[in-house]
Amino acid sequence: MQSLENHFLIAMPSMQDPFFKRAVTYICEHNEDGAMGLVINQPINVTVGELLDKIEIDNDKTQQAAQVAVYAGGPVKTDRGFVLHSPKLGYTSSQKLSSDIMITTSKDVLASLTTAQAPEQFIITLGYSGWEQGQLEQELLDNSWLIIEADPKIIFNTPVEKRWEKAVSMLGFDISQLSPEAGHA
C-alpha cells in the first residue's frame, strides 16, 4: 500500500455526498489502519475571532487573522479543531506533515493566531474526514477521488472558491472529459 499522506483527494464531479461535493481534502495520515484528512475548501459561517471568543481565548479583532473563515474539515468530531499551518515550532501538539505544512491540535496555537507569534500561514478546520481500513482504497477503486501531491499554495494562497478548480488544473487535463464510471481492464 502506498501512503497518500501529503496528497490531495479531489472529489470527482460525480461525487454526490453533499459534504464532499467539489471537496479538496488534504490527507494528514494514511496507513494500513485507515486515513485521516481535512477538507480545505468548505468554509463555515464562523471567523477565527468568533471561534476564539466561543472557546474563551483572548484575541485581537483588529488583526486580519481574526477575520479569516473557519472550515468544516469533515463530518467526524466536528467539535474538535485542527490548525494546518506553515512551519513554526513551539506548540504543545504539533506534527510535521511536510517541509511546508504542520498540523497542531493544542490550544496554544489558537492563542497565538492573532499575535505576532502566529504561524505565517494557517487555516483552522472543525472536524475531520476519516476512513477505516480499506475504505479509502475502495473509494479510489470506485472512482470517487482523484489524487495529486499536495501543494501548500492551494491551502494557504488560493481563494477558497478556486481551490477545487486549482487542484483539478494541476492534473493537466480537462476534468469535464472524465467519465464518472470506473474503468477496469
UniProtKB/TrEMBL annotation:
It comes from the Bacteria. InterPro entries: AlgH-like. GO terms for cellular component: cytosol. Pfam families: DUF179. Gene3D superfamilies: VC0467-like (3.40.1740.10). PANTHER family: UNCHARACTERIZED PROTEIN YQGE, UPF0301 PROTEIN YQGE. Belongs to the UPF0301 (AlgH) family. NCBIfam families: PRK00228.1-1. This is UPF0301 protein DC53_21165. The lineage of its organism: Bacteria, Pseudomonadati, Pseudomonadota, Gammaproteobacteria, Alteromonadales.
